Each structure stands twice: as structure tokens, then as C-alpha cells.
Amino acid sequence: IGMVGLVLYLGLGMVCGVDGARREMSLIATCDVEKTREARRILSEVFWPMAVQKGFEIPRVCPLHQDRDAMMFLEGNRRKKGGKWICQVCNKKFSTSDFLDTHIQFAHEDLFDTNNTVCFGDYCDMLGCPSSKKPRNVPCDSSSRDALRLHCQAIMHTCFPLDTAGQLSLYEMFSKYFCQVQACDGNADRDHLDNYFWRLSRSATYMWAAGVVIVVVFVVYYLIVCLYLTDRRPVKRMTRLGTRQEHFSLTNTLYNMFSPKPGRRQRSHNRW
Length: 272
Prior knowledge:
This protein has 272 residues and is mostly helical. The protein is 63% helix and 4% strand. It has helices at residues 3-15, 27-30, 33-53, 72-75, 97-107, 124-127, 142-159, 165-179, 187-258, 262-271; strands at residues 78-81, 84-87, 93-94. The chain has a 3-stranded antiparallel beta sheet with strand order 1-2-3, with helices on one face. Helix 7 runs antiparallel to helix 8 (165-179).
């Protein structure tokens, strides 16, 4: 949250006669919304799709489970219209997105789902969010990085229990992507794995597009064949029918020309 939100929160507590410094702030109030969005973006691009592609359902005990997002209510009740940010709970309008986020966090905190108890922004250091990356000239603390690596491996073990071969492959993949790169010299490995997941997502997109093209071509081909057969059958029947009608009309004409007419024969007989 922004500094403005903190000042408002503590100020309201002091006005109400509560010591703001001692008041225990809830998870909703302390969760960093911007970092949560960054972490959610990484999870939605790499973590959750890969598990779905492998046919694995992430257990809810995993802190990175999609349904445990504490800020889910906030994201579902904000919208922008005409240059203003609108709270969909009370329809109040705000000039910036940060003001709207602070408003929903503090004014509608009681509406948040209490079962969603994970702030994804707290895992930004592990996930490699852009806001958590430190400049290269800052010295690396190896002890803190090792502790973060061990914490990351424990989380991956919770998300992917080592029961089957598929879960083992996911555990190894994400441990390498999120945990092993926590070493001080792990930036190169993270860049290499970013390229790997990018190629993997592109290949999956190409396979999906190729499948759609094949289905469309098959449907078009089937329609063309059906239309061709439908047009050919009536033509044959009409051609045969027309030939028979022409044959009958020609026969009748010849018969009328060469067959004697009774009326004419009677008139000629009366003359003689």
C-alpha cells in the first residue's frame, strides 16, 4: 500500500482513541497490491499454466494456489470509466488507481474472503518480481539468499508432493526456476529459464493454432464435398428426365405426321 494509505489508517486509529502504533494491522491492510499484481502475473504466465499442461491440480494447501489470493476481492471490484477509477461496491470515484486500492482495502475490508489468506506480494522475492530485483552493484547477502532458497524448496514440496513422476518433474522444474536461482550467481540461470519457458509457451501456442487450422480446413473440405454431391445429383435426374421428355415429344410428333386422320379420309371418300 502507499504511504497515503498508511497515514490515513493510522490517523483514523488515533482519532478513534486507538493507539495506531500498537494496533495490529490485518493481512488485507498490509498486503502490497502492486507487488501482488506482479506476482500474480508471473504465476499466471508460468506456474499455473504449466501445472495445467502437465495435468496436475495444485492442492489448496499450496500457498501459491490461485484461489488463495487475498486480493481477489479487490481486483474483482474495481474498474475504470472515463478517466476515473470506480469502486464497484459503493460506486465512489477516484482519480488514481492507488487511491481506489487503498479505499477498498480499508473501507471494505470486512467484505474480503477470510479463506483467502495469502498475499502473493509476500513471495515477490522468491518469484523474481521486477520491483524486487536489486541493482547489480548492490552486494549479495549469501546467508539471506540461502534461507530464501530453502524456504522456496519447502513451498515447492508443499505444492508438488513427490508422489508421482509427474509431480516430481514439476517439482524439479520449478525448484530450478524459482529456488536454485536464489544463489548470488543465479541471475544467468533465471534468464536462461525465462527463455526456456518463453519457447515452451510459444510452442504450445503454435500447436493450438495448428489444431484450429486443421479443424477449419477439414470443415471447409467437408462442406465443399457435400455441396458438390448435392448439386450433382439433381442435375443427373433433370438431365435424364429432360431426355425422356424429348424422346416422347419426338415420337408423338412423328406419329401425328404420318398417321392417317379419320376426318380427312371421310371427306375424300364423299368426293368420289
